[in-house]
Amino acid sequence: MLKANLAARARLIFHPDELNYNFGAEHPLQPSRIAALMDLLETCGLWNSGDERYRLPLRAATNEELGLVHSADYIAAVQSLSASEPENEDERKQRLQLALNYGFADGDTPALPGMHEVTARIAGGSLVALSAVMGLLDEHTFATGEERPLHVFHPAGGLHHAWPNRASGFCVYNDIAVAIAQVLRASEAKVLYIDFDAHHGDGVQRAFYDEPRVMTISLHETGRYLFPGTGDVLELGNGLGRGYSVNVPLEPFTEDDSYIEAIDALLTPLVISFAPDVIVSQHGCDTHAWDPLTHLGLTMRGISAQIKAAHQLAHAYCQGRWVALGGGGYDLYRVVPRAWSMLWSEMSEQPLPERLPDAWIARWRPMWESVEQQELIAQQVMGKSSSLSVFPALFQDRPEDFPAQPRRWSIGSANRHTVALVRHLLVPPSVRQAFPAAQRQSPLAGLFDLLHLQGSATPSRSKMLETQVGTLLLRDFCPPSMVERLVVDKGMYAFARLPEREHQLLMSIARRPDCALAIAHTPEGVIVGEVTLAPGDEWWEGLENVYEVAIEVSSNWRGLGVASQLLSFALELDALEDMILFALGLSWHWDTEGLGLNIYRYREMIIRLFGALGFVEYPTTEPNISMEPANVLLARIGKRVDQRAAGRFLNRLLSSPNISGL
Amino acid sequence: MIVSEVMTTRLITITPGDTLSHAANLLRQYQFHHLPVVRSTFGVSDTGSGQRPVLEGLLTSQDIDVAAAVGTWSSSDLLHRPWQERRVAEVMHRAVMRVNPTTSIAAAAQMLVERGLNCLPVVEYERLEQEKDSNGTEALLVGLITRSDLLMALARSLGAFEPGMQLSIPLPMGDLTPLAQTLTLAAELHIQVRSVLAAPLEGNVPLSATLRLGTINPAPLLLRLQEANISYTFADA
């Protein structure tokens, strides 16, 4: 029944042994959910265990591979706890001590016979999935790049809570971290990890907290009440990895609209600024309103938006390389099979039927009915509003089954503030300018009119600049049509990391009426420098005539005075003295390697560059600046700026850094 | 908790004869603000013999700032030297406020706040061999306790570094029975307790307890709490 005309470049990894990841009948995580999923896929004709084109065999991860993330003593402990219960009293005591030391002593992740074998196999599945997509040599090699799968789905994977030396939250080995660590070892690729589970992806974040080649993005219910309690916005990464851990803690009872708004506002700018080679996404579907373990309130609409976003980003920015993993999801029969069938149908580009097959419902509805009462009670003790108890007949949810939250408005606005803070802290300025926050459409006239008070005749000025290396043309107020004809120099990567992305960014800035773009380009049409002028972002909300200046010069054109010439050219504005301009110097964007300077020398260089045009350093509590002593805020308050407006700006510089109060 | 459980013991120290430029370099290199000044003596004690650091004083980054400022302003000949060449002994302060390893955390916290200090040296007093007759004792430096150490101790004792979820149990009239019952139930269900906090914030009895539980699956416990008529606060709709 499979559509034969499809290019079979999506694969699904499943092995019946993975169903042995079973902590017992009373445990919320039941492997029968995977069985129900596989049954649904086969019944709908979306996947067939006999069809080689859509499957990928898996192997167990070796101890050496597990050791990329887990400590040797932990692996040894898991192996010894994997053996069956000893008879003798002394050994039993030792076993208990071992369980206590390594996180197996509680009801969440009890030690069970054979767990080393089954979790090593699951870790192996994710490892094979990522290696296949990345074209790394493995047991299973593909003859040509064409045959290599682009997308792989491994539903049993996604055990994101496991720590290097401890089991936690139903997870023994962290298959995600092991697979990513293997890619880091075997190639130079950068990996973007997106965690859609309702719980914070603490294990994966922990494994790569100081690793700049892995960006982890976790969207989850806030840890105020929910396990594991971590995942605050300010967990940004450490050392070289600062800025590569992204956390979006959402309010309890967040619903589809607010969730979709958050992923729309954040994912694309983050992917652009990081420029990954592959996307690994964890699709825990315990975000659904019916889930008995969390407080989020999504429906299939929100879950489908997650899946579509991951797929689209992989194609737009990673040449399609995408590995999707399972994860949490404790409404075993109503949510998990539907959510992950949707994922597979999106990945394999096969249409999903509207209705669930009757035969499948007949097989699995009784399973749900046997746990229905328990599920209802669990939802009620967790404080979820008692929803209708129905077994779905469709893949999509019916909106009438999900009554609106009474606090919808305040939940939405709290989430919006969280998203604004994440954007402010983690998205570089020029990328942020290309993706303006949705609600901030300035009703003012375009910046062009504002800056040309005297009504200059020519829309855009230009100027020649002779350098030792060659002639450059400087232009301001570049229209999109002009930017489109130019290309970007290879040395322009500070913000978007890849020249062609930088070009897209410049295009979107040129299209914005409230931004101004000045560029330096060669006569051959290669852009080697840019200065952007854009209204201050959320932190400066409510202030008038406050503009952020950002500058970049290609690494191939440094030391020629291009930066200072271009900056002074861009600021030759009629309205200059009516404006407050500021620039943020954030040490983590500085190309200190390229210039062979340390960050403090670089800082001095920036202060000199802007100082020549009347910019002065101001102390500030602005959260980006106060995070790192090398960071600097420079501002220039025009001579004709109203005293009160200037005062308000200076007050804002030192206002309390609580963005949610704005 | 006592000071020895949270103090820093791997210390970077300087001697009174070192120059301020050396001290400034150390502070910059290690990115902290306090340097204990010690003089090494060779001593014998119950714990063995060896080089023993005797605390002479404390040098802070602020002391160096002041020295640098005074160095440029003063016209007096005595001070008319670049600050970099001045000796630690000239600008350090004697650090008269000290604590012992067995001082309670609460006392140390109070001392830091009341005196507006950021750091206290931790010392043990020992009688010196050669001065036995004069009854002389000297302060051996064993550690340093800073405000950050206390904040980390607070976070750790709240269980903040362990994965877990949070639950509040109201304690009407300060009655601890609901808390005791909750803990019994948690033990029965094999749920790890990361921390229990029940301190009187207003009045003299605690009115609510905050528990941090090491589980991703609280429903079984919450169910038992409802059956036992124990109220709790969790995320509310």
Task: Tag the structure with descriptive keywords.
heterodimer, A: 662 residues, alpha/beta, Arginase, Chain A, 9-stranded mixed beta sheet, 7-stranded parallel beta sheet, 16 strands, 36% helix, elongated, disordered N terminus, B: 237 residues, alpha+beta, CBS-domain, Alpha-Beta Plaits, 3-stranded antiparallel beta sheet, 8 helices
If you had to describe this structure to a student in words, what would you say it looks like?
The complex is a heterodimer of chains A (662) and B (237). Chain A is α/β, with parallel strands linked by helices and 662 residues long. Chain A has 2 domains: 14-403, 3-Layer(aba) Sandwich (Arginase, Chain A), CATH 3.40.800.20; 428-661, Aminopeptidase (3-Layer(aba) Sandwich). Chain A has helices at 32-43, 63-66, 72-82, 89-101, 115-134, 175-186, 202-207, 256-274, 300-317, 336-347, 358-381, 408-426, 429-434, 447-451, 480-485, 499-511, 562-570, 592-595, 599-611, 623-626, 643-653, and strands at 10-12, 151-154, 191-195, 214-221, 245-250, 278-282, 322-325, 462-466, 471-475, 487-488, 516-521, 526-535, 546-553, 580-585, 616-618, 632-637. In chain A, strands 8, 9, 10, 11, 12, 13, 14, 15 and 16 form a 9-stranded mixed β-sheet that branches. In chain A, strands 1-2-7-6-3-4-5 form a 7-stranded parallel β-sheet, with helices on both faces. In chain A, helix 1 (32-43) packs across helix 10, helix 8 packs parallel to helix 9 (300-317) and helix 8 (256-274) runs parallel beside helix 12. Chain A starts with 9 loop residues before the first strand and ends in a 9-residue tail after the last helix. Chain B is an alpha+beta fold. Chain B folds into 2 domains: 3-156, CBS-domain; 165-227, Alpha-Beta Plaits, CATH 3.30.70. Chain B has 8 helices and 7 strands; from the N terminus they run H-H-E-E-H-H-H-E-E-H-E-H-E-E-H. In chain B, strands 5-7-6 form a 3-stranded antiparallel β-sheet, with helices on one face. Chain B has a two-stranded antiparallel sheet with strand order 1-2. In chain B, strands 3-4 form a two-stranded antiparallel sheet. Chain B starts with a helix and ends in a 10-residue tail after the last helix. The relative contact order of chain B is 0.14. The model of chain B has no long low-confidence stretch (mean pLDDT 84). The A-B interface holds A 28, 105-108, 161, 168-170, 199, 202, 221, 224-230, 252-253, 292-293, 295, 377-378, 381-385, 405-407 and B 160, 163-167, 189-192, 212, 214-220, 222-223, 225-226, 234-237.
